[in-house]
Amino acid sequence: MTDDALTPEHAKEGGAAEDARLAGLYHSKKDRVFVRGIQGEYNLDAELARLRSMPRVRKASEIKFVDGPQAYSRHYVEPKDGISQLFHLHLEEYGPGGKSQKHGHVNEAAFYILDGVGYEVHDGIRYDWKAGDVAIVHNNCVHQHFNASAEKPARALVLKTKPMYLFMNMLFQKQVEPRQLEPTPEGVGFEAREEEDDFNHPEGGY
Question: What one-character-per-residue DSSP string does 98-138 give?
Answer without folding.
Answer: -B--EEEESS-EEEEEEESEEEEEETTEEEEEETT-EEEE-
